[in-house]
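B., you asked whether I could sanity-check this one before it goes into the benchmark set. Here's the sequence:
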Amino acid sequence: MEINKLSISFILIILTSLVFPFLSLSFSPESPSDRRVLVLLDDFSLKSSHSIYFNSLKSRGFDLDFKLADDPKLAVQRYGQYLYDGMIVFSPSTERFGGALDLAAVIDFVDAGHDLIIAADSSASDLIRSIATECGVDFDDDSTAVVVDHQSYAVSEISGDHTLIAASDFIESDVILGKSKIEAPVLFKGIAHSANAANNLAFQVLSASPSAYSANPSSKLSSPPSLTGKSISLVSVMQARNNARIMITGSLDMLSNRLFKSGVQSARNHIKFEKSGNEQFVTALSEWIFHERGHLKAVNLRHNKVGETGEPAIYRIKDDLDFYVELYEWSGKSWEPYVANDVQVQFYMMSPYVLKTLSTDQKGLYKTSFKVPDVYGVFQFKVEYQKLGYTTLSLSKQIPVRPFKHNEYERFIITAYPYYGASFATMAGFFIFSFVYLYNK
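And here's what the prediction gave me:
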């Protein structure tokens, strides 16, 4: 019996030591950028050819787990817990993932709130294209087509076919690309895609110039290209409703050491830069993708009657109340006060009866005051904040509102004075009529 107890205890210790590290990898709102990332590769040579990008992530505290995309032991969850908080797919030609990973598993990974980066090229498989489509992005149907630009191509000693382009049409958002302006163009060589117009969560971060088009440069055009000009997206992102972030690009070379270190000169303006903007652009974008920037949290939502401090269990119609909430933004290392002038609160029952813009003390505290409407029922304080580049905030707190009690109404209501007068006038008129009728001969 003692031997069996010892054996069971030993097994439990081993299982705990194996499972506990994986349980500790779940997303923590207290440190949203302290995460482990799965990197899927077609070939381990990408570790060296894209080492600058990977080292940038490691230097910021990310734990990268490199695996071949067709690894038969591949898995993203175990015992119902996800092993990773982000995924980087640098395996464009993979027709089928190994192990327990497939298209549905990748979508479930995103649906669980985890982040995803996909880099494709001209060898993009149907699997990679399907994942992109599920994420609101459609690659060009022509598998032989690449992005061509005869005006904004990168000048080099070999003129080439103008498929190495110098792109500089960035999204205007300090949240997504950081406050440091990207001066040098980004070198891009790859395939075109477009953000699905029906998906309002996906948008372009780097778009092609008006002179660009998607076609096979080695063959003559028999029909107009399906993607041209600004409709061509070189890099797109999507923030899902659960705040999972996705980046999709049609150029794996864009993230390579070679293009990171290359000088760039656009044929459009002939301004030469000693170093391309690839590293700055990709680094800034990865900070946003992995929630090192633009991640908000709301805490201490509270309310009380004016002049009181405790939170009541019920309000009465026409009560004056104060509402408070605190908002903070993750800076990559700590939570800092979030300052904005467009945060609003709704006092909501079926529809908003009160909509107020909150004022801030510049230290994270937002507040407002208003009068409870003359309607009783079950209301909600609702804060729903959606702003480009920031995580969506949606929080609510329920509170009932009652009418006046019978002994809380005013004895004489000013607005009822005409009715009081009419009543007494009727009584006086009846008295006079009765007197005249009885005593008049």
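One thing to flag: The two ends are 122 Å apart (CA to CA). Otherwise nothing jumped out at me.
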